[in-house]
């Protein structure tokens, strides 16, 4: 069911994608953006939205899911294969071993899920993986000496989107389903906690009109 928090979360997610594509398309640069985080997001969306083929979705849901899958794949393509953009990729700083995140999340999904079906297990896996997918990006930002405005805005909006989706689940608990959904709740809390340090320094830099810089 749609509610204000979910709608705002979706719009914020779209906005952060627009900000990232604006940086890549207009500046012809992906400096400061973690390719490894973007690759994890491709896996997240491909595994989460398998229900496009198995259950009824509204036109809104279909459109949003296709946009998220398509843009995530497009961003990875730009960073890997565009002849100009790929030269700006901060490969030496993007060293987080992201493949170590995939297997533990999948194993966890095999044991902790709503129902032992392919769709439900992969849905749980996508939530677990999304909760930690931002780690390579945060590590990259800590190692970057120069964080440009669009990159900072992109990560901030990405965090806000997750906070709004967490509020969506809280709202649904009180107003709709009256059931605790441990998988999205705990995953959302972990993901929000990972953004906490970044939020602090982002708001601090904005308030003091300073260049965003994270402690090493």
What can you tell me about this protein's structure?
There is one protein chain. The protein has about 220 residues and is mainly α. It is built from eight helices and no strands. The mean pLDDT is about 90. This is ER lumen protein-retaining receptor. Keywords: Endoplasmic reticulum, ER-Golgi transport, Membrane, Protein transport, Receptor, Transmembrane, Transmembrane helix, Transport. One of its GO terms (molecular function) is ER retention sequence binding.
pLDDT average, as an integer? 92
Indicate the low-confidence ranges by residue numbers. Answer: none
Can you give the helix content as a percent range?
over 70%
Taking the sheet with the most strands, its summary is:
none
Helices and strands: which structural class?
mainly alpha
- DSSP, total strands: 0
> What series of H and E elements makes up the topology?
HHHHHHHH
Work out the radius of gyration.
Answer: 17 Å
Number of helices: 8
N-end to C-end Cα span: 42 Å
Beta-strand percent range: under 5%
Instruction: State the shape.
Output: globular
Protein name: ER lumen protein-retaining receptor
GO biological process, one term: protein transport
Subcellular location: Endoplasmic reticulum membrane
Family: Belongs to the ERD2 family.
